[in-house]
Design goal:
By secondary structure, the protein is α+β, with helices and mostly antiparallel strands. It is built from three helices and five strands.
Amino acid sequence: MRVRLFHELKAAIGQSEIELNVDTLDDLVRSLVSKQESIRSLFFDAAGKLRSYTMIYINNTAQNPQELSRKLNDGDLILLVPTAAGG
């Protein structure tokens, strides 16, 4: 499936879109973290709980609540958008 990365994820991975062969959102997130450990804090808090502010879209539909156990299908388009902050 295609995974589009935005903001800090794009900068950390060095690409705006990658192809992954994974079964679930959890597999996808863990695969990205294994490629670049520095992005772990974008997805998980210190207790290992999924942060709610990273927006996950599957086929342009926001995943609320975000369930990492969600099964993915071949051909899905996943968008990962960390919330941008600033002042």
